[in-house]
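Suppose a colleague, Dr. K., hands you the sequence of a protein chain of 157 amino acids and asks what its three-dimensional shape might be. Before reaching for any lab equipment, you can write down a predicted structure in token form. Begin with the sequence itself:
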Amino acid sequence: MALKPLRIVAIGKIRTPFWKDAAEHYLARLRHWRDVQECLLRDGDASLPVPDRNAVEGRRILDALAPQDVVVVMDERGKRLTSPQFADFLRNISENAAARPCFVIGGPFGLVPEVRAAARHVISLGPMTLPHELARVLLCEQLYRAECIIRRVPYHH
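The predicted structure, expressed as tokens, is then:
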């Protein structure tokens, strides 16, 4: 079953070694089945006030989105899904021949409303606030888990 590529648009590189290793681990597993394109955008200037920094990062995210992207913003205020529900969601958005699933994760101070407004879907990785590096790891793991569920590979319990 060949499925179209997935895209992850995120602010900043993962700098913490164990988060970086974990994300790479799940991305490598996921890439056995799908091309995963990462678009890592530069952080806003740390000397800027948080609202200005978020605005800069938000503009970079919006500029990186392509017309064929089905934008899925990861935000703690988003819809909560179980892993099987997330797998169904991924399967459904992957079936559209003209679209590409595109998952967006903001920087350390979250996302501006304009980015959430540009999303077709807003999904939560959980109700707690997570460090954005950990959120990236969780997204990669859940994408891998979803692929395993879709393909009936024994990983999900």
